[in-house]
Amino acid sequence: MKRVDVSRFSSLVRKHPELLIGLALAIPVVLLYLYALTTLEVKSKLLFSTASALLVFFVGAISLDLEVGSLGLPNFGKVAFFALGAYISALLYSVYDVSYLVAVITALIISSLFGYVLSIPTVRLRADYFAIMTIAGGEFIRFVFQNEKRWLWAPSILPPHTPTQIISNRAKIELTNISPFNMRLGDMDIYHVLESIENLLRIRIFTALDIDQLFVWEVTLLTVFFLIALATYWFIERIRRSPYGRTLRAIREDDITVTSVGKDVFRFRWQVTTISAFICGLAGVMYAFSFNAFEASDFRPELTFVLYFYVIIGGLGNGKGVFVGTALVTLFMQAASVEAVQRNIYMHVGPDSPLFGSFLEILQLDIFINPFNMRYVVLGTILILFLIFKPGGLIPEPRTDNEKYLSLLTPYERARSDEAVSARQSLTEKERLFEGTEDENDS
Amino acid sequence: MTVEPDDCDQYHLEAEDIHRHFGGVKALDGATVFVKKNKLISLIGPNGSGKTTLFNVVTCWLPKTDPFDEDGGKVVFEKERIDDLSAHEAALTGMIRTFQTTRNWQRLTTLENLLVAPPNQTGESFLNIFLKRKKIREEERKNTLKAIEVLEFLEIMHIRDQLAEELSGGQLKLLSLGRLLMTVPSLILLDEPMAGINPTLGNKIMDKILELKENVTIFLIEHNMDVVFNYSDEIFVMASGKMIAHGTPDEIETNRDVIEAYLGEDY
């Protein structure tokens, strides 16, 4: 019999205390998600929506993390870039008949421009006032989309084609209808490959998850999203590791000192907000694919706050943390939205339960039992606990080490420097203080 | 004013007739300073006499005044007017300052604190991150070597790998001095470099500052009179936004105005 080595686990936990908190969060979330999966008839539907939400929000969250985690600029208007990306790409394609590629590029450019505009006040504004201003900026964009009838409303599908707020996303509708994208994966030849892998491994994982029920467009979309997310991750990590990213962190710590050594802090700020706006606009274009049609009220400030959940729970200032945070929260949100989960929790601990049922009904607390209604309460509580006890998040920003720089030196230079470090470290504080002065006395 | 520029060439920094007010308070009221090249010039005066404000004006740290305001003055550094520059542009001319309260990048290592400082790094331009990777590596190597040199010079090699938030107050003072050296300055403005640290370490910092004097002009605000009178080549004395005296340490020590305004009879 194989025995689990507990001592190894405990030493691992002692080394990384975050692991315990992570498991305490991940285990219930994963169990809830697995339970949600088992209640569904076609499990791949939930899998698809989870995966696409995860990828879309990961791209959005990592762009937020570049601003908040690396530069220390709390942008609370991220939803505006989602809205700009989604609206402009969809409107240009469905209403103004521009080719989709041009529509997307235009959306990204406009989104970046808005990011640049938002950065201008940072010359004078302190971070907290910047946060307030960006909330207003986000709401401003939403109200423009809601009320500008001439340009930003789409003619309704039914005659007499009066403009409505609702934008139908023609790109997605077309994608879901064109062959071969409208076929199910089970009908494609490639599925036999998956089946043979299944037979080889003797685990019926693809069958169990109803992968054959997925549409080809769903698989294609996920693949494209995955590639975009991967590229974004690589791009942002590259920025973080460069001298540019180092200066960004210095600005986050203290911008006045950065100015005092002759660096234009504003240049870094506008560049980062613009890049981040570009990426977030891209997330908006991706986000549009979760809807056949959308309207301005799909872009409320909650979307920004959800991004903050991801980033703070996962860990500011590093892409891995953001991914973990996004994955945990998305799994929870998706599981909570499954009807059977809501109904069954209702039955066991809600008003239908034999034990407390009537009590809850009298107090009219039954609405709180529904995990979907409670999702923001749960997340908000977790967020507050994190901010108090673990502001670094599940995966904190890695402590910078000098290895990166020291490895650039030749072995000789490196050894000399390391020797000097340990030589000085071995001295007492008093010896260090008087070392120089004694030399002078001798001479 | 008592000072007249006799030979312009020897002046590294000239600030003439600087006026500055904050609300109703006149912080600077026609202050004038001439800083000679490769000398250690001290600026002393009671608290609130406008010393730090003068530093802020000279390094273009304060917001620009509008032309109709009575605030203004002329600042010339290395024979060029720099009044219109922004703070970071002024720093790029080779005039670097420190702050009264030590400011450092807390969650960066000591080595990184130094590596951020060199101006106009290739790797700080966004496109270069992706296009000029080789050049960035070379530059990083060069800067790392230089940073190690600076650490050795300041004798703080032992804190190379520590985060700035883990350092003591004295180490932070040395670190901010080191950051300044990474920028290759020609004039350094030190705002109370010895405030709040023990006298032995203070002397050590002073030794280091004096060693720099060969290549660099030093403009110093300090309240430690022993240091000021022992090491300065020239001393300016400020009171209520005006220069009340200027001269060698011996001249200042016996100046009646200075004794009344600042030093007191006992000195």
- Residue fraction in strands of chain B: 15-25%
Instruction: Give the averaged pLDDT of chain B, no decimals.
Output: 86
CATH architecture of the largest domain in chain A: Orthogonal Bundle
The string of secondary-structure elements of chain A, in order, is: HHHHHHHEEEHHHHHHHEHHHHHHHHH
Major β-sheet annotation of chain A:
2 strands, antiparallel
Structural category of chain B is alpha/beta
Structure description:
The complex is a heterodimer of chains A (443) and B (267). Chain A contains 23 helices and four strands. In chain A, the strands form two sheets. In chain A, strands 1-2 form a two-stranded antiparallel ribbon. A two-stranded antiparallel sheet of chain A has the order 3-4. With 267 residues, chain B is of the alpha/beta class. Chain B has ten helices and ten strands. The interface between A and B is large, with 46 and 61 residues.
Keywords:
heterodimer, A: 443 residues, mainly alpha, ABC transporter involved in vitamin B12 uptake, BtuC, two-stranded antiparallel ribbon, two-stranded antiparallel sheet, 4 strands, globular, B: 267 residues, alpha/beta, 6-stranded mixed beta sheet, 4-stranded antiparallel beta sheet, 10 helices, 10 strands
Please give the structural blueprint.
The complex is a heterodimer of chains A (443) and B (267).
Chain A: H1 6-15, H2 18-39, H3 43-71, H4 78-94, H5 100-119, H6 127-147, H7 149-152, E1 154-155, E2 163-164, E3 167-168, H8 170-177, H9 190-201, H10 205-208, H11 216-241, H12 243-253, H13 255-260, H14 265-287, E4 293-294, H15 302-314, H16 319-336, H17 339-349, H18 357-363, H19 366-369, H20 371-389, H21 403-406, H22 411-426, H23 429-442
Antiparallel strand pairs in A: 1-2, 3-4
Chain B: E1 11-22, E2 25-36, E3 40-44, H1 51-58, E4 72-77, E5 80-81, H2 87-92, E6 95-97, H3 110-116, H4 128-131, H5 133-154, H6 169-181, E7 187-191, H7 199-212, E8 217-221, H8 225-231, E9 234-239, E10 242-247, H9 249-253, H10 256-263
Parallel strand pairs in B: 3-8, 3-9, 6-7, 7-8
Antiparallel strand pairs in B: 1-2, 1-4, 4-5, 9-10
